[in-house]
Amino acid sequence: MPTKSPPQVLTIAGSDSGGGAGIQADIQAIAYNEAFAVSAITAITAQNTRGVINVFELPLSIITSQIEAIFDDFKISAVKTGMLFSQSIVRQVACLLKARKVNNLVVDPIILSKNRYPLLSTEGIKALQSDLIPLARLVTPNVDEAEQLSGVKIVSIADAQKAAQIILAMGCQAVLIKGGHWRQHRGLDLLYDGHTTTRFQGTWIRSKNTHGTGCVYSAAIAAHLASGKTLENAIEKSKAYITEAIRHGFRIGHGIGPVNPAQRLL
């Protein structure tokens, strides 16, 4: 009997030489959550657990060729974007995805690395707001990213709701503000779809090994959307998954170790 074809998910992101985030983490997370991962690399980073050291932006022509090659041969049920790095890449990716009429687009708006290395230019942030976010079914900023996208300082739940409303007004269908960096409400994620605010409360785990958390979480959500789950169910399953990935993170390197996207398989 032939094996049933899994849903196919495209991740468009940067390459992490340290293996803990970016394309490398996305592929593991998508595979673990029962989808088939295909990829388009936007930039190559030199990084390790201590942080990002250097970034090489790939030419638009090769980024375009990767994306077109994927859509010309695979049946893509969801797309996740991660590190896009520049205004020109954001605009080109948005143009290509709009032409393909992608329904399940998860935008993880990566702006800074954990060691504060800039991973998206100021012009890139503006392009994200005007060109890519309007195409998204879900945008998944952490508190810091939500503050930069919305201009709202987030302390309270009311602040987070206001920021989500501003981001939603950019044209996306829903916003998930992640609470991993939120000191006042640790472990709480807020989903806002324009009508309802849904809270996803998870266990906050004190761990040094959190590199790749946002990448893995958003990739898992994309995988579940690709399989036909509702947005709420996809987030709920992915929230439980990322919690365990953090709980079983790797104590490797001399800095911030990576989460474990395949923790139950080891």
Write the layout of secondary structure elements.
Blueprint: E1 8-16, H1 22-32, E2 36-48, E3 51-57, H2 60-73, E4 76-81, H3 87-99, E5 105-107, H4 122-132, E6 138-139, H5 143-150, H6 157-168, E7 175-177, E8 188-192, E9 197-201, H7 213-226, H8 231-247
Parallel strand pairs: 1-2, 1-4, 4-5, 5-6
Antiparallel strand pairs: 2-3, 7-8, 8-9
In angstroms, what separates the terminal alpha carbons? 28 Å
The CATH architecture classification is 3-Layer(aba) Sandwich
Beta fraction: 15-25%
Instruction: State the name of the first-level CATH class.
Output: Alpha Beta
- Number of strand elements: 9
Specify the biggest β-sheet.
6 strands, mixed
Q: Structural class, from helix and strand content? A: alpha/beta
The CATH topology turns out to be UDP-N-acetylmuramoyl-L-alanine:D-glutamate ligase
Shape: globular
Major sheet strand order: 3-2-1-4-5-6
**Which percent range fits the helix content?**
25-40%
Can you count the helices? 8
CATH superfamily: Ribokinase
Low-confidence stretches: none
Order of helices and strands: EHEEHEHEHEHHEEEHH
| Count of domains | 1
Question: How does this structure look, described?
Answer:
This protein is of the alpha/beta class. 38% of the residues lie in helices and 20% in strands. The protein contains 8 helices and 9 strands. The strands form 2 sheets. The chain has a 6-stranded mixed sheet with strand order 3-2-1-4-5-6. A 3-stranded antiparallel sheet has the order 7-8-9, with helices on both faces. Helix 3 packs parallel to helix 4. It is globular.
